[in-house]
Amino acid sequence: MTADDVAETVPALNPATAYPAPADAPALRWGILAPGGIARRFAREIPEYTASTIGAVGSRDLGRAQAFAQELGVPRAYGSYQELVADPEIDVVYVASPHSEHRDHAILALEAGKPVLVEKAFTRNAAEAREVFDVAASRNLFAMEAMWSRFLPHYRAVVDGVRSGIVGEVLAVDALHGQALVGANPRLWLPELAGGALLDLGVYPVSFAHALLGAPDSVHAFGPLTELGVDAAETIVLRYGARTVAIAQANLETRLANTATIAGTLGRVDLADTFYFPTEVRVTLHEGATATLEGRCAGGFQYQAAEAARCIAAGQRARR
Q: How far is the C-alpha of 3 from the C-alpha of 10, rounded, in Å?
């Protein structure tokens, strides 16, 4: 059997070209609420890879907003979030403030008539998330979590491939996300700013399991707390029916493998480090045949922005 014959025995994952190109999405004028590090990446990648633009940035510190605007070529800077969301030349607001503020800032934008893309974790808890979605629905506006990984081509190809039966019935999902962040950004360790491993790191493996399998039948979690009471790490076991288990791990104190695996009755899908970034994917069937999808690409944030733009242009409301 030739290498080509072996490759043909492995169902192929969709290439990036199977999914809409970010550059083809409708053009929107984005306002950035809170000019932090993640907002800086958003401000670079959206105008570079899509037809959309960054129209304004808002901060509680005008000087900080102005410095951000000057660095990244943003035309308008505001010294309050209220001024930002009131800007008539802004079509949609990207909420990039700490998790502890997401609920209030998303509602602020929605009540000003602006759809929102809210950084992950969407809010601190389910009750706050429901409030945001209820406000969005009451005003017929779009709201979505900025879980950027879910819109990357390799991620979508894995979800579509697994749902189509590429590895048969899924029996196990494992996803890891750990970073050595002791002494890093103080926000990560402060309960009043919604710190902890789950909301900053654990959202990635949990979201991965949810994208593949949906809501679990049961959830069991355990892990240590810091002296201030935030979670330093957790292992989360999600059960689906009698046969399928997903394990999601997060850790703020050490770097984990940061890979993900889906194992089924016919074979396995492995996402290389770092699984939630554009990366390589390998499909391995039980008899040993393998196929690889090269998922690396430039940027990454453009895919979520393009999806939001398509949804908003189509008149969709909240995307839960």
A: 11
pLDDT at 12: 82
- Give the C-alpha separation, 189 to 48, whole Å: 34
Q: Please indicate whether the domains covering 17-147+301-313 and 153-294 agree at the CATH topology level.
A: no
Residue 55 in contact with residue 116, Cβ under 8 Å?
no
153-294: CATH topology: Dihydrodipicolinate Reductase; domain 2 (3.30.360)
Give tens-digit pLDDT for 267-313. 999 999 999 999 999 999 998 899 999 999 999 999 999 999 999 99
Per annotation, catalytic residue among 105, 120, 150, 156: 120
Structure tokens at 88: 């008539």
Q: Which CATH code fits 17-147+301-313?
A: 3.40.50.720
The amino acid present at 57, given as its one-letter code, is V
Tell the residue number behind the tokens 């410095």, with chain if given: 67
pTM (2 d.p.): 0.94
| Whole-angstrom distance, CA of residue 51 vs CA of residue 29 | 9
For β-strands 244-251 and 29-33, DSSP reports them as unpaired
Contact 223, 235 (CB under 8 A): yes
Q: Around 251, how many Cα atoms within 13 Å sit in the side-chain half-sphere? A: 13
Tally the residues of the chain.
320
Domain ranges (residues) in the chain: 17-147+301-313, 153-294
120 tagged catalytic: yes
Residue 197 class from Cβ within 10 Å (0-12 exposed, 13-18 middle, 19+ buried)? buried
> Are the CB atoms for 310 and 25 separated by under 8 Å?
yes
